[in-house]
Amino acid sequence: MTDVLDRPHVWLPGSPGHPPLLFLHGTGGDEHDLLPLREHLDPRAPALSVRGTVLENGVPRFFRRLAEGVFDEDDLHHQVDALAEFLVAAEQRYGVPAGSWTAVGFSNGANIASALLFTHPERLDGAILLAAMIPFRDGPPPSDLSGRRVLISNGRHDPMATAVHTSTLLDQFRSAGAETTAAPHDGGHTISPARLPRMAAWLASHTTDRKRNDDGHHQ
């Protein structure tokens, strides 16, 4: 029987009180691509970075597409289920509280992070979505994202993750009950270094809020 944790990944332990980050790369990337973002977002956070298992013209992706911008949604559902299963195994292996991850995804990685939130909301605490499109053409399945936080940072001149994608995705998350934040930038289909301090502050505020809530529950 194949061990679900045989999937290529990198695990970096962190410090207590720092919620874990889940890094999900873009098309053609791998499990090392986004790890440098940890230093900008929260250097003391535990971090898990995972490689997509689908190959397109020899380069990794998290799910298939039928054409540029047209997703194979059957494969998306299959791959997001596999990623959810992987996260359960990773939590057990690395001692991570179930569902405490904040996903940090770029492009294809952002799209599977969105799909994971909509289809397996119990697996994530929130997400930072970079150059994110809409994962489900006809809208996501009904889900309750109350208590989840989502930050979307798309470029105003992104030819793929357009303004329509951005506003629609924000609306979908809001309709499901998530707390949403938009952090647009003036570039294209890229990660904006100028927005990293905003993302770090967003993460830190969530950590502080959750610690305050935990302390209140334990009194």
Automatic annotation (TrEMBL):
Any one GO molecular function term: hydrolase activity
Protein origin, superkingdom: Bacteria
Keyword field: Hydrolase
InterPro entries reported for this sequence: AB_hydrolase_fold, PLipase/COase/thioEstase
Residues annotated as domain Phospholipase/carboxylesterase/thioesterase: 83-205
Official protein name in the record: Alpha/beta hydrolase
